[in-house]
Structure formats: structure tokens, C-alpha cells
Specification:
The structure is a homodimer. Chain A is built from three helices and ten strands. The first copy, chain A, is of the alpha+beta class.
Chain lengths: 199, 199
């Protein structure tokens, strides 16, 4: 997908920092016009968040009824505060994305879903992270709780999916990927309804 | 914004890794119910991307006319490929968000804007990053190029803002924050048009 620019040539690549969850890689690149640049990028260190080098991650738009979506209040260490967002988590080794989405939903919201379908795949910060998350639409929910690794039970909230504006007005709702996921799900549901009206 | 849960108590905090752009901090936290957990979070190391600890960042929804938005093709080191996204960049020390947005637009798209207004502030991965980006709507554009630090001139594309679906169908368009920004801008423009029709 170069669209005019051939990909730069990798001159060298080395790990420059590592923690339990994150690793940082330094890349020396030569672009097609000869310009050379040093980049840093995050890669996962095993089961870390940074790179998504492992199985990747899932985010779930779970609908308990055709008008509402489930949101969680979760402690967000990057902000040292609680944030309102969609349930999500890393895919376990060997797990498929549908099973991962259902497990996270059971752990974080105490609900399972009869029907789970992929909506979109989102990147986080492609300039310096390889992380990708599979956004899944979960419907036909039923009560089922699995123990997760959360330090405390998450507070779960139902919100009308048509009313994204009032979420955006809240101070604790700001995660780009969750906002993208809700708009994509809302547009999908709108177009399905239009389709039904016509046929 | 605890909504039921008081914030966890910080038991300890130390830096566990550092590179030119990134730093990783380890936090020991005790939650209100007594559960203790170790978290890692990325913080900016000076002018780095990770934390946004400095002046933060801006992303621009720039409209050359009332129907189109400017997208850039940029090399994304995290994916080792070109990605289609919105112009964005870090705010320089002492720079305000409007000036930063206009400068990035001039550097990346060769355009300035007579009018720049804030649309929304988005987080990246609040669970482990403090990064926030100010999304700005830029209109009344004029030609003006500033030299940036890009290794090669960016290819700029005009796309109808009403047609986000065809962007989502493309393999090189996947950045969550850019998708959120486009939907928010599109909804804002739709509601302004509706308002104008009525009044």
C-alpha cells in the first residue's frame, strides 16, 4: 500500500529498552529518496500491551437489547483515574477472537453472548506501535460471570447507542478506539434498520 | 469520577525502563477493597510520544471545502508500512493548540487554515498511557507550506467526509483516533446543516 512511495529500507534494528510488559526497538531506515531516519517503536515483551506481538486484543460492543450498549468503569493507570470505556482484553494463546471476546465479556460484565461478529480492526498508534484490536459486536446476551484478573468488580453501565454525543460530553469518556467502535456499530445498526424497512 | 470506587492508593512508583522517546514506570497500587496490583505505564521521556507528558499532541480534521477532508499517507514504523490517517503531531514547548494544529497542517499538507476550532480530546490507551490528543477542525484553508521533519513529502488525499464507510473498507486506514475524529466531525457538520435548515 505504498501509493507512490516504496517502503523504506531497514538499515538496522535493535532493542534499546525492556520492562515486564514493554520493549522498545530502535530502527534505522533509509527512505526511497535517500533520507535516513531513526525511529523507535514499542513491541510487546511477551504478554505485554505494547506491541500486540502475541495474539492481539479484542474490544466488545455488547448490546443487552437493540438500543443499548454496555460500558465499564475501569481504573486507568495512565490517567490515575477511572475511565468509562468498552470491555476489552488480550487474546490468550491459542484462543480465537470470538472466544476471547466472550470470555472478556463474562469477566468484565458478567454476560455471555449467543452471537458475536467482527465489526472492524483498529490500530492504536501505528507510527510507533504494532498493536491491533479486533472490535466485536456481541448480541443475544445472557447472564454468566467468569472470574477475571480485575482487582475489583467493574461497575457496568447501559447507555443508548444512538446517544454518543452525551458520552462525549462526559469527562471520563475519551478513549479513541472505544469512540470509533461505538460510531461504527451505530452506523452498522442504522443501515441494517434502513435495509429492513426497504425489504 | 470514581462512580462508586474511590481511587486506589499508590504504594510505590519507580522507573523500570527508558529509551530516547519512551519511559516505563511501574506502579504498586492498593484498591479500595484491599487488592494490590502492579501496573506498568508509559510516560514520555522528554519529547517522546509515549506519555504526552509535555505539551501533548494535535490531530487535524482539515476541510478544503465543506464536503472533503484531507488525509495523509505516512510511513508507520509500528506496522512497517504506509498508513492513511489524519495529519497530527506533538505540540512544541510554549505553543498553543491552534498554532500547533496550523503548523502541522502547513508541514504535512502544505495548507494553512483561517479557522481552527477544538472538536474533542481523545486518549490513546488510558490503561497504560497518559497520552491525550486535541482533535481540531480546520476550515477556510489556504496554500502555505512549512518545512517539517518528514523524511519525504507526504502524499495528501481528499476524501468525502460523508463516506467514512469506504475508508473503513481500505486496508491502510485503521487508526482508531482518526476514525473517531472523522465520525465526530461528520456528526458535527450534519447537525450544523440541520440547524441551518431549521433556522
Amino acid at each position: 500500500t505504498g501509493v507512490g512511495h516504496p517502503k523504506p529500507h531497514l538499515l538496522s534494528r535493535r532493542e534499546v529498552a525492556r520492562s515486564r510488559l514493554f520493549a522498545v526497538e530502535e530502527l534505522e531506515l533509509r527512505f526511497a529518496n535517500g533520507a535516513e531516519r531513526t525511529f523507535e517503536r514499542l513491541t510487546g515483551s511477551g504478554n505485554g500491551h505494547g506491541g500486540g506481538g502475541g495474539g492481539g486484543a479484542v474490544m466488545i460492543v455488547a448490546m443487552p437489547d437493540p438500543e443499548h450498549v454496555l460500558l465499564i468503569h475501569e481504573y486507568a493507570a495512565g490517567f490515575d483515574d477511572y475511565a468509562l470505556t468498552l470491555p476489552k482484553g488480550l487474546i490468550d494463546p491459542g484462543e480465537d477472537i470470538v472466544s476471547a471476546a466472550n470470555r472478556e465479556l463474562m469477566e468484565e460484565c458478567g454476560m455471555g453472548a449467543q452471537r458475536i461478529e467482527p465489526l472492524v480492526e483498529l490500530s492504536l498508534a501505528p507510527n510507533y506501535m504494532s498493536h491491533r484490536i479486533h472490535v466485536m459486536l456481541a448480541t443475544d446476551l445472557y447472564e454468566k460471570r467468569l472470574p477475571g484478573d480485575e482487582p475489583e468488580p467493574l461497575i457496568v453501565e447501559r447507555h443508548p447507542i444512538e446517544d454518543i454525543a452525551s458520552l462525549l460530553a462526559r469527562e471520563d469518556f475519551h478513549e479513541g478506539r472505544a469512540i470509533a467502535a461505538l460510531f461504527i456499530a451505530r452506523d452498522r445498526l442504522r443501515s441494517e434498520r434502513t435495509h429492513e424497512q426497504w425489504w
